[in-house]
Design a protein that fits this description.
globular, 116 residues, five-stranded mixed β-sheet
């Protein structure tokens, strides 16, 4: 597998700091690069579950990740399993797909401010 840089949106970074560490995000990025993710949502977007410390996959968080870029994996948004509902709503998936398939991510993702 070629080495890819790992990025997070500002929104994802703010959320993730409370739930999971960068070490788990990097492990998840390696797994995505190896084709290990829960769902391919099309347009270079995938859903990846990340086990949380002391809870394993049972207390996992779900993330939407842009994986299409040849040099980067970009974590766009995340949610905890304990949040209401069972999955990401279409109002989140649709802009994430646009973000994943466009070269100019800043135009597609409304909460994008800078790279982390």
């Amino acid at each position: 597998m070629d080495s890819k840089r790992v990025f997070k949106t500002k929104t994802f970074d703010h959320w993730a700091r409370k739930v999971i560490g960068d070490d788990l995000i990097c492990i998840a990025a390696l797994e995505i690069g190896a084709g290990l993710f829960e769902a391919d949502l099309g347009h270079g977007l995938c859903k990846k579950r990340i086990a949380t410390p002391d809870h394993g996959k049972r207390g996992a968080v779900s993330t939407l990740v842009a994986k299409q870029d040849s040099s980067a994996i970009i974590f766009l948004v995340g949610r905890e399993k304990s949040q209401p509902g069972h999955d990401f709503p279409a109002t989140v998936v649709s802009p994430a797909k646009k973000c994943s398939r466009k070269a100019s991510i800043a135009k597609a993702w409304p909460n994008w401010s800078n790279w982390h």
